[in-house]
Specification:
Elements: H1 2-42, H2 47-73, H3 77-99, H4 108-128
Length: about 130
């Protein structure tokens, strides 16, 4: 019975760590998009450049979320990173559906794959990073 309670606590801890890291990651995405928006305001950019910049911001945010979750738990970085990527993608889907009604876009599967890959890489690097500063 004790092992079952420990397993439930571990699952809850995985979920809270991944969800917290996902929200930090969303803040990073917003920050990177704001910075890129400032740059785009100074130059004339096409739709292709804007799409590439938003994908770049998503990849940076997913990596940072995976890194934070892997660094916080210190084990199972790939699983935590992918779980964090799922949370990030869910937030992106909800936000895009609310604000721009673009959730049906054909680029969503590509963004899902990129989010999961970069979050997983961030989780692995986070677990394997040194503990000290």
């Amino acid at each position: 019975m004790r092992n079952l309670k420990t397993l439930k606590n571990t699952r809850a801890s995985f979920m809270t760590t991944a969800a917290g890291s996902a929200f930090v990651s969303c803040a990073v995405v917003i920050g990177v998009i704001s910075l890129l928006g400032f740059i785009v305001a100074k130059i004339d950019a096409t739709d292709v450049i804007l799409s590439a910049m938003s994908t770049f911001a998503l990849c940076i945010g997913a990596f940072s979320g995976g890194y934070i979750s892997g660094r916080r738990r210190r084990r199972n970085g790939l699983v935590l990173g992918i779980l964090c990527g799922v949370f990030i993608f869910a937030v992106i889907i909800i936000a895009s559906h609310i604000f721009s009604k673009a959730a049906e876009s054909f680029s969503m599967p590509v963004k899902l794959i990129l989010t999961l890959v970069f979050a997983g890489i961030g989780g692995v690097i986070g677990v394997n990073s040194k503990i000290g500063r």
